[in-house]
Design goal:
The complex is a heterodimer of chains A (112) and B (116). Chain A has 112 residues and is mainly β. Helices cover 0% and strands 58% of the residues of chain A. Chain B is built from no helices and 11 strands. Classes of the chains: A mainly beta (112), B mainly beta (116).
């Protein structure tokens, strides 16, 4: 079955460093991947969408890559700040399916 | 980015009563809306997909008679939890998708339902 996996349940980094989160997909080829941020008690907030024919996409301190050979997307936050602490979700639709498939999320903690 | 609102943001109700949650796409039209529930420290679980003007499609294990979904317009969907029980207490999140590819999906802020 189609599956998205975010390898790290939690990631702790020091303020100012770059956080790198990983998303791997199996058994399908998504046309695009979406990344979301979710804070406790809130709905996910859309951050970035990257298409399969785009290698990289940037938005301010965020960067997303999409490697169809490795079946992987990387999400980077540069110059991380404590305010970036949240759970980050990777999601995609694929193979003609109507619904989003979500990874379990990575809980990022940025320490001052 | 696009905005999806939900109302109410939290609700407490007595067991056996019904609760309606509204979801609106504020600045875009959404042919498709989704309803999720989320338990603490778990990922989102899709309950149903609704298309404007047609019946909702429910995920396996979700009781359609208990969770009534109405998608009356391109900007409004409602979820009614009927005859609520304490085990229905959860965080309910709606989501809406635009009309044009790649159709980013946007989420509401969520509704915390507590059934006493």
């Amino acid at each position: 079955s189609q599956k998205i996996e975010q390898n790290s349940e939690a990631l702790n980094i020091q303020e100012g460093k770059t956080a790198t989160l990983t998303c791997n997909y199996t058994n399908y080829s998504p046309a695009y991947l979406q990344w979301y941020r979710q804070d406790p008690g809130r709905g996910p907030v859309f951050l970035l969408l990257i298409r399969e024919n785009e290698k990289e996409k940037r938005k301010e301190r965020l960067k997303v890559t999409f490697d169809t050979t490795l079946k992987q997307s990387l999400f980077h936050i540069t110059a991380s700040q404590p305010a970036d602490s949240a759970t980050y979700l990777c999601a995609s639709r694929g193979g003609g399916y109507n619904k989003l498939i979500f990874g379990a999320g990575t809980r990022l903690a940025v320490h001052p | 980015g696009a905005v999806v609102s939900q109302h109410p943001s939290w609700v407490i109700c007595k067991s056996g009563t019904s609760v309606k949650i509204e979801c609106r796409s504020l600045d875009f039209q959404a042919t498709t809306m989704f309803w999720y529930r989320q338990f603490p420290k778990q990922s989102l679980m899709l309950m149903a997909t609704s298309n404007e003007g047609s019946k909702a499609t429910y995920e396996q294990g979700v009781e359609k008679d208990k969770f009534l979904i109405n998608h009356a317009s391109l900007t409004l969907s409602t979820l009614t939890v009927t005859s609520a029980h304490p085990e229905d207490s959860s965080f309910y999140i709606c989501s809406a998708r635009g009309l044009v590819e790649p159709m980013e999906q946007y989420f509401g802020p969520g509704t915390r339902l507590t059934v006493t």
